[in-house]
Design a protein that fits this description.
The complex is a heterodimer of chains A (about 775) and B (about 60). With about 775 residues, chain A is α/β, with parallel strands linked by helices. Among the domains of chain A are: about 5-110 and about 525-600, Rossmann fold (3-Layer(aba) Sandwich); about 230-390, no CATH class; about 605-765, no CATH class. In chain A, about 55% of the residues lie in helices and about 10% in strands. Chain A is built from 23 helices and 13 strands. Chain A has a six-stranded mixed β-sheet with strand order 6-10-11-3-12-13, with helices on both faces. Chain A has a four-stranded antiparallel β-sheet with strand order 2-1-4-5, covered by helices on one side. In chain A, strands 7-8-9 form a three-stranded antiparallel β-sheet. In chain A, helix 6 runs antiparallel to helix 14. The longest helix of chain A is centred in the middle third of the chain and has 72 residues, at about 400-470. Chain A is rod-shaped and about 195 Å long. Chain A starts with a strand and ends with a helix. With about 60 residues, chain B is mainly alpha-helical. Helix content of chain B is about 70%, strand content about 0%. Chain B contains three helices and no strands. The longest helix of chain B is centred in the last third of the chain and has 21 residues, at about 40-60. Classes of the chains: A alpha/beta (about 775), B mainly alpha (about 60). At the A-B interface, helix 5 and helix 14 of A face helix 1 and helix 3 of B.
């Protein structure tokens, strides 16, 4: 359903501190006139906020908070409530936008602001493009493109940062004279040098306890030094072996005459001891009791007994020497082995002399003491030599190398890890940017295609509406075209040639017209839900002729639409108000911080109508003032429309002309025009009367000290002003009759100058 | 011809973009319903960052 607004309520919103309502019970159009800063645009803001969730003016630089009136009371929530004749009405607050309305309006065109037109006309290329999107109601799509562009730019920056980081980390690896691509091989080599297993990749090293692996390497030199010192200390001990046992051994052997007999007897004695019950001699096999045999043996052995004891003691002594000599040899072999563990090679240990000693004892041979002494002396010499070897070891030269390798490994691992992480991050950042870039490009292309399709669809409507504003036929098809490197521009047919951008050939007001007709054509072609249009100060650069044409276009072409026209242009307001019936018309009298905008409803069609209403209620002075203002407006409109040459006045003074000055200018123009002379003669009386009225009846200040004009005088004057105003209207189409090209009413029926007789007749008829 | 809103427009755009997972598409479309501006742009970027970090896992 095509929806219209029936009531607009604002509370604590923008320029409204308390509550402000505008009732449009019949869903009629609304016309509002007011000076700058009186709160007209608050109404447009409310509608924009309700249907988009945003106010474009506040969408930048964190101005969102300005939705709320600064002086609003705490208990008053900021809200906009809209009643419609459909189902899109409801309430919108900062925290609860009306999603239903926003969703419905997201594919519709309903708001045109003067500043959007200004952006479209004279901003930079990018801003113009944004303004065109807003004109067409495609702002949401353009905002999406902008956000995708922002995302792409952010990701590009992230990619560039990641690339820069990768370069830095690669340089850190290269500082170790290793190419990043070969860092794993370099780490493996260092790991081997540090004495632990190389890993397959960088992260695997992070799972190892490198402290433990590297620490022994760092301390090995100290350990070796400790071992060396201990060995040297052990070697300091003097070799002491008691060799007196060897002399005893040799002497004992000399005292034993027949050592075989001794052995046999000893063996027999051991046999009897082992076999006490034997009844047979083990030598001759004769029968004999064990006890008898034992007694006989003891008798035999008695002489040898002493020798046997001495021999046993000597043998034990010799065996002790053998053991001591063996221990000395073993100890040196152990030292040599220990030295080898710390990579120190000691001289060969002299062959052990324990073996020859053992053999001599076993064979009951004497042991040469000199040989034993020589052996012990050779051990002492070996000790000395080994001490020299150990003392000559210097471990300091190896130690830094081992430590450096460990440090090198650790530093390279850190650099390699940072490089590997940077490489992963850079790859991801590159991938994200590439995807964002693809999406953005696709969005831009799709947007261009879409806008092109939209413009093609509305092109004929744009041409037709533009023709109504500028009947010269100079402007043809409007479209979007590609320009230069991916650039997009609006293009128009201008006197048969394609012009891109149109700004180059069209004046500001023509561009203004292009903007307005694009908006209107868009709404008419595509709107499905919304049947209202809000136009906020859209005629700023129009002269009076084009303001008039736009007013007529809106009234005639958009009869079946609800128009909300907000303007600070009095002529535009009056011109529309004069021609429409059933519209709500308000004048914003002013704005205050506490009360917000003050409105006065304009029921009469013109100032004269309003003045007559005031007169009816007895407000003679107010009626006179209003009538004077009405006369001023008519004269200003005439002078502007007829291009009356008035002396230039600096600044705002140029806008404020006295009635006498305007009348003089008008007379001068008519006098100088061949067709105007006779016309001037016919209206000169009226002009003189109006001049006099302006100085007397309509001059409230002149009557300040006396009783003032009577009701009848004011009424008569107001009727004269009305007749003069009507004189310039075409009796058939109601549009103004200007001087341009002989005929300048819209229907063409009334030529310049207008005919006073027919105008009077028409005025009488309208009465 | 139908007028498009931002979401349906992005849907159309993403049809022509390969290499995005369904999850990423859904997240991008969901982000479009946010208020336009830098925050939404950052959200869109973060969706693509996550997608890029997950791509190797998708193979």
């Amino acid at each position: 359903m095509a929806e219209r607004l029936t009531k607009i309520t604002m509370q604590a919103f923008r320029g409204v501190r308390d509550v402000y309502e505008i009732e449009l019970a019949q869903a009629q159009s609304l016309l509002m006139y007011g000076d700058n800063g009186t709160g007209k645009s608050t109404l447009a803001d409310a509608i924009e906020w309700y249907f988009t969730g945003d106010i474009e003016l506040l969408a930048k630089e964190g101005r969102d908070h300005a939705v709320r009136h600064l002086g609003a009371l705490k208990e008053q929530q900021t809200l906009v409530a809209l009643d419609t004749n459909g189902d899109l009405g409801g309430v919108c607050t900062p925290k609860a936008p009306n999603k239903n309305a926003i969703d419905a309006a997201s594919r519709e065109t309903f708001l045109l602001r003067g500043r959007t037109i200004a952006d479209f006309v004279d901003k930079s290329k990018g801003e113009k493009w944004g303004a065109l999107q807003r004109l067409l109601g495609l702002g949401a799509i353009d905002e999406l493109r902008t956000d995708l562009q922002r995302a792409r730019n952010d990701l590009k920056k992230a990619r560039d940062d990641a690339s820069s980081k990768l370069k830095q980390t690669a340089a850190a690896v290269q500082a170790h004279k290793v190419e990043p691509t070969e860092v794993e091989g370099a780490l493996a080599k260092l790991a081997t040098a540090c004495g632990f297993e190389p890993q397959k990749n960088i992260d695997d090293y992070l799972h190892l306890n490198l402290r433990e692996l590297i620490e022994p390497v760092k301390s090995s030199a100290a350990a070796r030094r400790t071992v060396t010192d201990a060995l040297i200390a052990e070697m300091q001990a003097k070799i002491e072996v008691d060799l007196r046992a060897l002399g005893t051994w040799n002497e004992t052997l000399d005292g034993v005459a027949d050592r075989t007999q001794l052995d046999v007897l000893s063996a027999a004695a051991r046999f009897v001891a082992a076999h006490p019950d034997s009844k047979q001699c083990p030598v001759c096999d004769k029968k004999v009791t064990g006890a008898a045999l034992k007694a006989r043996l003891e008798e035999t052995l008695a002489t040898l007994q002493e020798q046997a004891v001495r021999f046993g003691n000597a043998e034990r002594g010799a065996r002790g020497v053998e053991s001591a000599l063996g221990a000395l040899h073993q100890e040196r072999m152990r030292w040599r082995t220990k030295a080898r563990e710390i990579a120190v090679e000691l001289p060969d240990v002299p062959e052990s002399f324990a073996v020859p000693v053992k053999k001599a004892v076993d064979e009951r041979r004497p042991i040469k003491a000199k040989e034993v002494d020589a052996f012990i002396a050779s051990l002492g010499a070996w000790d000395e030599e080994a001490r020299v070897v150990l003392a000559s070891q210097t471990f300091e030269a190896e130690e830094p190398q081992a430590r450096n390798q460990a440090f090198e490994f650790a530093q390279l691992l850190v650099a390699a890890k940072q490089w590997a992480d940077s490489r992963v991050a850079e790859t991801r950042a590159e991938r994200a940017f590439a995807q964002a870039d693809t999406i953005f490009e696709a969005c831009q292309n799709e947007q261009r295609k879409y806008v092109q399709q939209v413009l093609e669809q509305i092109s004929s409507e744009v041409g037709r509406l533009f023709e109504r504003l500028h009947p010269s036929g100079a402007i043809g098809r409007v479209a979007v075209e590609t320009w230069a490197d991916k650039g997009i521009e609006l293009a128009v047919d201008f006197y048969g040639t394609r012009q891109r951008p149109p700004h180059g050939v069209l004046s500001e007001s023509y561009m203004n017209s292009v903007a307005i007709v694009l908006f209107l054509a868009m709404a008419r072609t595509f709107n499905e839900r919304l049947n209202f249009l809000v136009l906020d100060d859209v005629v700023n650069s129009f002269d009076v002729t084009h303001r008039g044409r736009l007013g007529e276009l809106l009234i005639e072409e958009f009869q079946d639409w609800q128009l909300v026209v907000l303007t600070h242009d009095r002529y535009f307001f009056e011109q529309i108000r004069r021609k429409v019936k059933g519209w709500a018309a308000f004048q914003v009298l002013g704005w205050s911080y506490e009360r917000g905008p003050s409105l006065r409803e304009q029921r009469g069609a013109t100032d004269v109508d309003a003045a007559l209403e005031l007169l009816d209620v007895g407000a003679i002075g107010d009626a006179a003032r209003r009538g004077r203002r009405g006369l001023e407006h008519v004269l200003k409109e005439l002078c502007e429309g007829l291009e009356v040459p008035l002396p230039y006045r600096r600044g705002n003074d140029n806008e404020f002309r006295e009635i006498g000055q305007l009348l003089s200018g008008l007379r001068r123009l008519l006098k100088e025009d061949a067709r105007g002379k006779s016309f001037l003669a016919s209206i000169d009386g009226t002009l003189r009367a109006l001049e006099a009225d302006a100085q007397s009846v309509l001059n409230a200040e002149a009557h300040a000290s006396d009783a003032g004009p009577s009701t009848m005088e004011v009424r008569s004057t107001l009727e004269r002003v009305r007749a003069f105003d009507t004189l310039w209207n075409c009796p058939q189409c109601g549009s103004r009759v200007w001087k341009e090209q002989g005929v300048r009413c819209r229907c063409g029926a009334t030529p310049f100058p207008p005919n006073p007789a027919s105008a009077t007749k028409a005025a009488d008829q309208s009465k | 011809m139908q007028r498009r809103d931002a979401r349906t427009f992005l849907e159309e755009v993403l049809k022509g973009v390969s290499g995005l997972s369904d999850e990423t598409r859904d997240k991008l479309l969901a982000a479009v319903t946010d208020k336009p501006g830098p925050k939404r742009a950052a959200k869109l970027a973060s969706v693509l960052v996550v997608d890029a970090s997950e791509e190797p896992r998708r193979g």
